[in-house]
């Protein structure tokens, strides 16, 4: 375990080059959050996000005036990364960025201790399961150039922070992200991501091979509340995913409702163990936010080679 330092702060395509070390020290990174209800408008959510950013910026100025120079430098490093991400992030891009996190970290294998959150996704964009992710990488390349002009940031750290920011921008929970991941210089092994056609038993087995429980799997699946999967407002991170799963709209004949969700989403509600957590999260958004936050932290820390201070 590390001794985390918490601080609440705000915040082209270049060919990626492998890096084996990162020069600057990293600490635990929290980011601004927007806890918004399911029925709040996008405009209100955005304004709330901006107001928090302004308040947190003011708080940062006050904090920096009363901390040693070394700690102030660490807080500034966090702020630079967040601001770089926010300069390129929008609600329309949030789902793609969050998917990028899952596809980079999701290659982890507990038995072989291989894969995980290591930035290798930038070498794996031609794989069928990663179709469309090159757009998200291009978005973050722009942010990375801006950040690297001030301080170096690994791809793994950047993707982890960007995913947390995407959740926050869409009204989800505050997710602290520890910094200091080292990038891989080679792609991860193929065939490690869970397939979209798996049934619940196979899904649980797949996630167990990565060190995740059924509860954590169901919580992480709630990331599909944003994007084009059909689970409510595509720009609002909330517990609508679970409510809609319980309704099973795909069982109706014809129409757009029959196209909601992936086969793997639909499989969850047919499994008793998964169904218990689906019902829990459908009825308790606060519980979902807390469990998603914890599962996300675990996800972006799997398989990580950490920078040595």
Automatic annotation (TrEMBL):
It catalyses: L-ascorbate + H2O2 = L-dehydroascorbate + 2 H2O. It is an enzyme of class 1 (oxidoreductase). Pfam families: peroxidase. GO terms for biological process: cellular response to oxidative stress; hydrogen peroxide catabolic process; response to reactive oxygen species. Its EC number is 1.11.1.11. Belongs to the peroxidase family. Ascorbate peroxidase subfamily. One of its GO terms (molecular function) is heme binding. Its cofactor is heme b. Keywords: Calcium, Heme, Iron, Metal-binding, Oxidoreductase, Peroxidase, Potassium. It comes from the Eukaryota. Residues 94-309 form the Plant heme peroxidase family profile domain. This is L-ascorbate peroxidase. The keyword Magnesium does not apply.
